[in-house]
Amino acid sequence: MVEEISNTELQELIYIVQHQYGYDFNDYAKSSLKRRFVRFMGHASVATLVEFKTRLQTDPVFFKWMVEYITVNVTEMFRDPGFYKLLREEVLPRLATYPIIKIWHAGCATGEEVYSMAILLQEAGLLERSRLYATDMNAANLEKANTGIVPMKWMKDYTHNYIQSGGRNDFSDYYTARYDNAIIHPSLRKNIIFFQHNLVTDQVFNEFQLICCRNVFIYFNRPLQEKVVSLFYDSLTTRGYLALGMKESMLFSKERKKFEVVNGPYKIFRRKL
Amino acid sequence: MKPATGFDIIAIGGSAGSLPVMGKLVRELPPDMKTPVILVLHRLKNVYSELNKLMSTNRPIIEPEDKEPVKPGCIYLAPQNYHLLVEPDNTFSLDYSELVHYSRPAIDETFFSIAATYGRGALGILLSGANSDGAAGLLRIVKNGGTGIAQDPEEADFDIMPLAAIELSNKIDVMRTDEIATFIRTKYTNK
Fold first, then answer.
1. Beta carbons within 8 Å of A44's beta carbon, 6+ residues apart
2. Do A79 and B81 touch (CB under 8 A)?
3. Fewest Cβ atoms closer than 10 Å to its Cβ: which of A49, A99, A118, A235?
């Protein structure tokens, strides 16, 4: 079993993936990318690096499996409840002034944060005139997100988070429990559009009042973060909001001067003119 | 400044029963030690605790942000709900993928990463805990030429974690808390 891979070996893997299939992982953070590759090799019972490279080069199905595995992203409903409380109290009242509210969840993974946003909008009476664009590079994630299914075993945690975020309703009104799964109510999902978009290679596709991209930057190196912040700037309306993960910083970004800080600890920014 | 005689990085991992020990080790670090220290503690998600107070240390304990440089003389704590890794360019990176040993942060992930980044310069210390997270990581540190210490299972509140490591390799040293503190101090005493 392969326990770790060197920088040179990582470069070789990135090269194969890029030249064979066009996916560009050059600007991903190295340690976590290595760790994803190693975990995939264990998961797929690939014994050696040579075998791994050969299979990547010869087997497109295996490649697809690999990409979906390494870019899979776990997520939670109402993760960091304080963040959602701020959205309720500070951000949504401002968004309410727009006739149509457009929100982009970039790197939405399996959709839990988008559903959380839909619940907030519903409670603020804004869902009917909101459009939620939820994108991810991983097609398997999106397929799952589209079903609206969330494992029942997490619902206790999510309910707790929801209450912490200032939620006053009965959280179980938002889903139907069926055996081991909960299905988010279709009325909450009807204004959500899930589609594939790769932040590394794809461009601006609309203009938004709020972009949420939480815990995606941690997988990117600084130059790529820089590039994506610039993409977000171009995708935001003037005075539009950008929300990053709580441990993600724009401190190192040259673009940071184009944004003002709305809330430091919760990493909510606003596009200047 | 005398030439560095100690380690390039010290990582201390623990779970149930490890907090008082971690606090004692942090309090007894040589005051002028420049080696950065990383603490990885199993903790609840979406709960923010004031670990400085819990460990009653005056030195600030920093929860690093993504891509923050690892600075000399600083004590870091793996943030709740992320794995904490160190990149080859000596910056932190965070990872929010699956739980490892039912934990995020996982001790193994930080240990693997410092083993790869610091090699012989790494010291890993594994304390009390009720599962085997950290054992494979400590083994990796030792394999890569670093130093691995497990808390004496006789002394640990929960011996599963240190025992799991000790069973993996006889190159992992077994010490009581006061011995670990002394061991670190001797590495920073100029003879």
1. A62, A65, A66, A69
2. yes
3. A99
